[in-house]
Design brief:
Helix content is 52%, strand content 14%. The chain has 320 residues and is of the alpha+beta class. The longest helix is centred in the middle third of the chain and has 36 residues.
């Protein structure tokens, strides 16, 4: 729950992210100026949620995801670290590093000390630390050319620590955060589409007054609202709910993008128009830690792996 001061906090955070849009930014020092540690202590879930809503709305590029995941891994880290190596795009939400080698993605330019998750036997997970200077990196050619992601590789030596529980929490946090950001991006896609439907005139009337565009927009809005509700609930639930939330958010963005691109027509594909920025960024975010198609397949496998006549399906979310 939040109090009457929350709207002012939201305005300050939205303004901060608007100012940092356009380059990959370490957001910590700017948040510190707002007294963020006190805000996060008072509102732990709304604070994280707000950061990723602001990031999706502004298309800013920050280290928020690294900060969230490292907060979950902090009990295992005896020294400060600067980032985390995330699973490669083809690996859904499971790391691809081997026990003696690093492979994965770093958001932004690899710098400082990086946490590397390493899978072990029987679904266990360990983490190690590597100096970014020992890795080679290649910038990924991604959906959104304004975003810098780096595929890294190199040797991994030194001690590994068991992190099965902590990694589960970290990847669940990533799924919730990315789902929150995706819903915010989808909201902007819908805003652009609705604005176009109001001002674009055909046959003497705005196209938004015609039945087909109105139905398409209504359907997309319903899908987004369903995803929004699931994402909001997932912040208080476990990993299965987090996977479901990110899958729903990715599908909602895809639905909104399809409708907006059809409604805006050729102008929506031009570099001068805003729409392509939110469409491309959403597909970019969806691909990280498992796309909606990958996660939907993963959810099916998890839900049905132990199904029997006597055993019900697992519960992803319990609505309060």
């Amino acid at each position: 729950m939040v109090d009457e001061s929350w709207p002012m906090i939201e305005q300050a955070v939205f303004r901060l992210f608007d100012e940092t849009a356009g380059k990959h930014t370490a957001i910590g020092p700017r948040l510190a100026e707002l007294g963020w540690s006190d805000i996060q202590a008072e509102y732990p879930i709304p604070a994280w949620e707000l950061l990723f809503r602001a990031q999706g709305r502004s298309l800013a590029q920050t280290d928020c995801l690294d900060r969230l995941m490292l907060a979950e891994l902090a009990p295992l880290l005896d020294q400060p670290v600067d980032g985390i190596v995330l699973p490669d795009l083809a690996a859904a939400d499971e790391p691809g590093s081997e026990r003696d080698r690093v492979t994965g993605i770093v958001l932004g330019q690899p710098e400082g000390r990086l946490v590397v998750p390493v899978p072990g036997p029987l679904d266990t997970m360990s983490v190690g630390i590597v100096d970014a200077r020992r890795l080679h990196g290649d910038r990924l050619n991604t959906f959104d050319p304004s975003v810098r992601w780096t595929r890294v590789g190199g040797p991994l030596d030194g001690m590994l620590r068991d992190a099965s529980t902590e990694w589960d929490r970290a990847i669940a946090g990533a799924h919730r955060a990315l789902a929150t950001e995706l819903v915010a991006v989808a909201d902007e896609v819908m805003r652009i589409a609705v604005s176009h439907a109001v001002v674009r005139v055909q046959f003497g009337s705005p196209i938004g007054s015609f039945q087909a565009p109105r139905h398409a927009l209504a359907e997309a809005a319903a899908v987004i609202e369903g995803a929004r509700a699931l994402v909001a609930e997932s912040w208080r639930a476990g990993r299965l709910a987090a996977q479901a939330a990110k899958a729903a958010a990715g599908r909602a963005h895809r639905t909104a993008s399809d409708v907006a691109l059809q409604l805006c027509g050729a102008i929506g594909l031009t570099a001068e128009h805003q729409l392509h920025r939110y469409v491309a960024r959403g597909f970019q975010i969806d691909s990280l830690c498992g796309s909606y198609r990958q996660l939907e397949a993963l959810l099916v496998d998890q839900l049905f792996e132990e199904v029997s006549a006597e055993r019900p399906l697992q519960t992803a979310v319990t609505w309060s």
